[in-house]
Design goal:
- The protein is 13% helix and 40% strand.
- By secondary structure, the protein is mostly beta strands.
- The strands form three sheets. Strands 3-2-1-9-10-4 form a six-stranded mixed sheet, with no helix packed on it.
- The longest helix has 16 residues.
Length: 151
């Protein structure tokens, strides 16, 4: 074994011994207070969890540019081609009227979609194993293009 190979082997041994991070999968079993089931011997409670902002209630400032008619091709949105739609109407008025062009700058959107029971999540175990980052939700391959309204 060459000196370079011995150095590589030693470096790999050091990294695996320190176990800097581990990826794990879990399922939300309770949303408030947060609990995530990992396996039969490990259910994590919120004091061991940090949660990515995208998985919490949070605000974003956005700009919206809309044109009608507009066709979004499969390459633009991923699953199938879709036509843009819009409508506006005052309460109690006649049927809605389509927008042709719409532009809004610096609108505040509040995302309400926090973690829910049965959400599948990706966890990152920090070095030492005492803290876990809930990095994101995930879907299994068969569920990638299914939406709640289609089930």
């Amino acid at each position: 074994m060459s000196l370079v190979d011995m150095m590589k082997e030693t470096a790999l041994g050091v990294v695996s011994a320190t176990n800097p991070v581990n990826w794990m999968y879990g399922t939300v079993v309770q949303s408030k207070p947060l609990e995530i089931y990992v396996h039969t011997k490990l259910t994590l409670t919120e004091e061991f969890l940090d949660v990515a902002e995208s998985l919490t209630r949070h605000d974003r400032i956005v700009s919206i540019d809309y044109e009608y008619p507009k066709k979004w091709e499969k390459k633009d949105i991923g699953d199938e081609s879709k036509d843009a739609t819009s409508s506006r109407a005052n309460i109690g008025s006649t049927p809605s009227i389509d927008y042709e062009n719409y532009n809004m700058k610096y609108a505040k959107l509040t995302f309400e979609d926090g973690l829910k029971i049965d959400d599948k999540v990706i966890l990152v175990r920090m070095q030492g194993g005492r803290k876990f980052l809930v990095a994101d939700r995930y879907k299994e391959g068969k569920d990638i293009w299914s939406y709640p309204s289609e089930k």
